[in-house]
């Protein structure tokens, strides 16, 4: 096939073509491939244009490059399988591509295996018609076969950073057309992710995360098996130790039995001495009890005499109290009668005063009328007076109308302010409630902080503010002999945890029992309750809660081994704590059954055990996890249950280090205080607004009253004028004078009544004040008598309590003496028994010498028990001990190997976890940098083409004022469709779809990458705009542009992505199908300028079915090849010619 190369005029005639970059394509040779029967093409090192009409085989060249470099047939969109590329009637097809490796010695470090392949790498792909796989051959520059492995080809592509499946590295015809037609921002974003390899990185990370999760699940499933393996290891070691020390243990057992015999004799002697001392103490105690009984009876007699005296005083005080009460009642009745009389006088006085006011007004009106009549009679010119009156009436009507309108406006404004004041009151009430809630929350946090901050010497404060006083009062009462046996409490104070991880679960399991007390008998319980009531009365704390009290006889620790669950790995909560006091131990066991509660730290492990009935240890009631989840086992009668405990109000009673909890509590306190300050400021602002509106409201009301006062005289004057005008004839003067005299007489009479009523009212007020003083004095006397009665009653109650207490004490002492007599008889019998045993023992050990040092009996018994347990290990009688030892050693080696693998696996797992986290952070940073760089490069390329564009990449949903503006994972491109004088381009652009010419201008735009926060991300390179440019800038979304304009933006987008693609060559097919000649020229020049930059050096191959416009050829870097039209005959295409010809353009 003949290919014509067009020689372009270079910018400088003497420049030689630039050198090839390692990994560039030097030559393509095809045989029986698609429409090419025999084809060969030598490409340039930088920019190559391959033009030709449709069907001339341009896309076949691109397809051949993809196929020979390992691409699949389906990705080319040209065939379903590789055999479809073979020409019809041919048995095979051959593709040969020559890759540049290096030219100079300095390029060897960038070359791929230069010693094996030399300066050129020849890749040959043979496709057979009957075989879909084909054959791959990789040769060196001497055309000698080096390798046929696909792995070798992949290594070479990775070395040169060639990504065949990257749509921006090989932009075929289908991808180019679909991208030009697509208006969806999602499609552009997908292309961006694939082109920058971010999608592949993200998929690889997700796959690694899934594998890591499966790895972790597998480790969790095998954790229980590893624990069983550890237990087996311990047992193996124990058996081996036993086999080695069996003989020594038997000899040691004989020695221990002898030592135990002498220790028992020593204990019996000590016990006998102790019993004798106990008998002496009991005799002394009996004598003391007799003395105490006599003293108590004397105190009872004395208290009874005092009660008689208090009773006499109480009768006298009660009589005086009743007299004072009757006196106060009488005075209040008199005060009420005086008040009623005053209520009758006041209305009468006010009525007379109103009557006097009316009479004075009538008098003034009569005098004015008489004067008017006299003036009327003296005035002859009445017509002129009437005219003056009419003018005055008109003036008064105008003033009245104006004042009425002003008063109505003020009333409406006052109503609006009143409504606003009502709303403010509701807001103030809500703010006050909010402040109250915050203060309550702050008090709770501060109380918890105080509990956490106490030191070791004030640990009792953790169990309540009054617990320190309670314990001091109990100790003082015990020293005084008020308790038979000292109570223990709070019980949590005597508990010590072995490990801190069990502290939270233990606090949830015990609940309020940690604050409780335990007593030996009910008498001690009553005494303890009296102490609680006394402290509550003295403190005056209404929220004081008495701690619970458990009454149980003190005895040795309960033997819970029969009821306690036994597990190979986990223990009960009782096993994780130390309790030195037997009474506290027994109280907790009886109250909470703590010996039946398992502690399993891991939630999944606990759930697995409690759900499976066969794994639940016998006697297990429930189980707690480290994060305080309570689980009940599945049984035949009930299903599995789990409860998540609320640990928000945890008091950290058993925590040894509270620094972290204190820090968190302080943060909570600061947060609540900040919210409280904000609420208080809001409440102050609301009150200020309310005060301002109230002042304005009062001013409006006052103004309304002032206007009404001005309005009343005007109305009266208007009425008078109307009356005067309405009179047809002058009135009789004599009638008015008679009425005036009558009015004066009535005024005199009314004034006399008012004077009498005022005198009477003054007298009533004086009497009322005297009665009030008498009532206050009598009330004070009544309160004093009432306090005296309360004091006498309190004294009588105290004496009665003292009598009751001494009577109970006498009864208890008598009961104790009876019990002491019985116990004394038992001790005597026990002492006699011990003495008889000691005589028998002397007969047994007379042949043995006594050791110089005899250890404690418990220590000898415990050691004897361990030796017997070690000797009682069962061994198979049919198995030789030496063979058993070999078997145990072999098994121990296997277990150590498995344990080593487990430790190595867990170490690798933790390292992988950290690596995945670092990889996720690195991916986010890389994505952010690439987005910013692509956006900036897009704007720069659009500016080089004489246009302005903006590229926005939305990684997250973008909201403005709560409305979704842009969806996540979208890419939007915008270009400027306006024009300015100094930036407008000189050449018009012709739209293929619209023949109107549009001026294009060149202002600078600002790229942005949206992250959903309402604005572009910071810390990215930006292009700034001048104020005039910002005013004239007008961006249009590419979805509303024509095909040519979209092609412009597509070229800019492709170049911005190429800036981040480090492939040595890029192929682009038919990107200019929707451009006119001018647009194509601008686009091609932009492509050439892009390739001319040093950072973008590489090989560029463009395929176009259109005529090539006039383009630049800087540095002689552009080569143009024209494909001839292929003549197709029938179902086959018969290419002709195989020479490369050169001609001038």
UniProtKB/TrEMBL annotation:
Report any Pfam family annotated for this entry: AAA_23
Residues annotated as domain Rad50/SbcC-type AAA: 27-285
Look up keyword DNA repair and say if it applies. yes
Transmembrane stretches, by residue range? none
Coiled-coil stretches noted in the UniProt entry, renumbered to this chain? 662-689, 740-844
Q: Which keywords does this Swiss-Prot/TrEMBL entry list?
A: ATP-binding, Chromosome, Coiled coil, DNA damage, DNA recombination, DNA repair, Nucleotide-binding, Nucleus
Question: What Gene3D superfamilies is this protein classified in?
Answer: 1.10.287.1490, P-loop containing nucleotide triphosphate hydrolases
Q: What family does the database annotate?
A: Belongs to the SMC family. SMC6 subfamily.
In Swiss-Prot or TrEMBL terms, this protein is called Structural maintenance of chromosomes protein 6
Instruction: Name the encoding gene, please.
Output: smc6
